[in-house]
UniProtKB/TrEMBL annotation:
Species whose genome carries this gene: Amycolatopsis antarctica
Superkingdom per UniProt: Bacteria
Protein name stated in the entry: PE domain-containing protein
Family annotation (Gene3D superfamilies): ESAT-6-like
Amino acid sequence: MRQVYGGTALGAGVAAAAGGGGGYEFKPEEIDGVIARWESLRDEFLADQQAIDAMLGVMQPPAEDQASTGFTRSVSDGLSSLYDSNMSMLDYVNDYIAKLKDAKGATENADASNAESAGSFMKAFEA
């Protein structure tokens, strides 16, 4: 989990463009790898979601007695909670991916603008 969520594996700040106060900073060559790791995590949550859906779809008690139906209901309730938790994490990951992509775009735009300004500055001295 450390490779995805924290420490130096993610760099040290995507701050303003990623949505506020604190944050991380990435070198331009790092951010694509960070985005790819988060997209991989998203894909894992999507696969989990399909597995949970499949389990929920086949939940039936082996008999119509109280013990069987009660157990099946408990398992179904647990799977429903797992589904909700997984969806919450999936929403978070999708939101974070969008913020990372916004931060990448903002960084690329700032870099292009700075390069253009530097070029104009250098041309002024050449004249």
